[in-house]
Amino acid sequence: MALAPLMRLRLLDAVTGMHPVDAAVRCLAVACQDLADPADLPLGQRDAALLALRRRLLGDRLRACATCAECGEASTLELSVADLLERMGGAASSPWEVQHQGRTLSLRALTSRDLAAAVAAPSPQRARDLLVLAALDQDEDVHPEPVSEELAAVVAASIAEHDPGAEILLTGSCSGCGEPWSEVLEPARFVTAELAHEGARLLADVAALARAFGWTESDVLELSDARRRAYLDLALDMAG
Ligand SMILES: [Zn+2]
Fold this sequence. Notes:
Blueprint: H1 5-15, H2 20-31, H3 43-58, E1 61-67, E2 74-80, H4 81-87, E3 96-100, E4 103-107, H5 112-119, H6 124-135, H7 149-162, E5 168-173, E6 180-185, H8 187-213, H9 217-221, H10 225-239
Antiparallel strand pairs: 1-2, 3-4, 5-6
Helix pairs in contact: 1-2, 1-8, 2-3, 2-8, 3-8, 5-6, 6-7, 8-10
Bound molecules: zinc ion (ZN).
């Protein structure tokens, strides 16, 4: 079922001016009230919820673009959200254990809360360390020293294995030169951008109908999409 017009504007309010990590959490909080705090969802689950929301709003077909690093040719990829959701697999069951240098480490999936803390870190290096410590459920104050490359690699690989939906890798080959490419699909970034775009389009419809017929925002939002489009056509005819 498509999202009601009022919900589309509430989603626009939720994402406007926000960093994609915060925008993703806020729009899930607005649209999926059956979820527990979306900031605490494993990233794979968060992104699956975002893609499901995107499917409800804009349908299953998704177009992704990639630019070849070799020759600069742009490739377009047609994707199905349902296929992506299937590929992302089940939810991560945290915590799990992994062996590293003779020790058993307990790891958990990363969440938007962890990402938000990392975004605020003073350097990319520190951001990475914060994510590793978060996955290990260790306090950064207790471990102020840098995390080793080996440990960071072990933790990253283990997260990719246990929360496979946390990174969606698209691969293909360039239609110009045949060079293979891969691109990470970031639902937090593109779904929230799409939601903002949809909301802005609806606002433009509201403004056009208010101008043509003197209706209020709530008058317009009560119309179905089909009825709104029909009135927009009539408004255009009147103006012409
Ligand atoms: Zn190319």
